[in-house]
UniProtKB/TrEMBL annotation:
Domain MIP18 family-like: 4-77
InterPro entries the UniProt entry points to: Fe-S_Maturation_MIP18, FSCA_dom_sf, MIP18-like
Gene3D superfamilies documented for this protein: Fe-S cluster assembly (FSCA)
SUPFAM superfamilies: Fe-S cluster assembly (FSCA) domain-like (SSF117916)
Top-rank taxon: Bacteria
UniProt-recorded name of the protein: Metal-sulfur cluster assembly factor
One Pfam family named in its UniProt record: FeS_assembly_P
Amino acid sequence: MVTKEQVMDALKNVYDMEVGFDVVSLGLIYDVNIDEENNVHVLMTLTTPMCPLAGFITEDAKNKVGSIEGVNSVNVELTFDPPWDPSKASDEVRTILGI
């Protein structure tokens, strides 16, 4: 059985190159669901709805999660509700950014 921890670990290797941090540390991952057939659904956001790297980031997330042994399929859903703000980022990221 694929675990949420495995999915989150894989997503730590997906970077928003505009800001230079991974999507987990930025707080862009809102939810991860794994069904009994190891189909993974990731609900995530981006730092802005106009992010020029949206396609790259979502495809990279899908590929990284899909590379986990046992994963059957991956769906990455983007949402902007609620909108992202810096308070969702990890303490480390906020410290580096001076927030």
